[in-house]
């Protein structure tokens, strides 16, 4: 049995998903920058392949689904049931980079104030 592929909104292509393994049927797919939401139905759990490049940092907040790399594409292991999955992308080390930038700016302000006192 070939994997079922669903494409939505043919004129304004918004993504594609297919069942990699298992009996999943995927629907109501929504791609936005940094977020992918889809509904699925599966009796035994499945792996769903999404037409998006895989990068470290994809998370699913409820821990029902596990994102993983499948030939450089984003794939998700999902449990049995009829659910909506919401994946969000947060670049690795994002918080560290933001905090480092803020610390650098505070340091520059401190040094600038110090130079006026001399």
Overview of this protein structure:
The protein has one helix at residues 94-117, and strands at 5-7, 16-22, 25-32, 35-42, 46-53, 58-60, 66-70, 73-78, 81-89. By secondary structure, it is an alpha+beta fold. The chain has a single domain (5-91), classed as Immunoglobulin-like. It has a five-stranded antiparallel beta sheet with strand order 1-2-5-8-7, with no helix packed on it. Strands 3-4-9-6 form a four-stranded antiparallel beta sheet, with no helix packed on it.
Topology readout:
Blueprint (H helix, E strand, L loop, with lengths): L4 E3 L8 E7 L2 E8 L2 E8 L3 E8 L4 E3 L5 E5 L2 E6 L2 E9 L4 H24 L1
Condensed summary:
With 118 residues, the protein is α+β, with helices and mostly antiparallel strands. The protein has 1 helix and 9 strands; from the N terminus they run E-E-E-E-E-E-E-E-E-H.
Q: Beta fraction of the residues?
A: over 45%
| CATH-defined fold name | Immunoglobulin-like
Side by side, the strands of the main sheet go 1-2-5-8-7
Total beta-strand segments:
9
Structural class given helices, strands, pairing? alpha+beta
Order of helices and strands: EEEEEEEEEH
Cα-to-Cα separation, first versus last residue: 78 Å
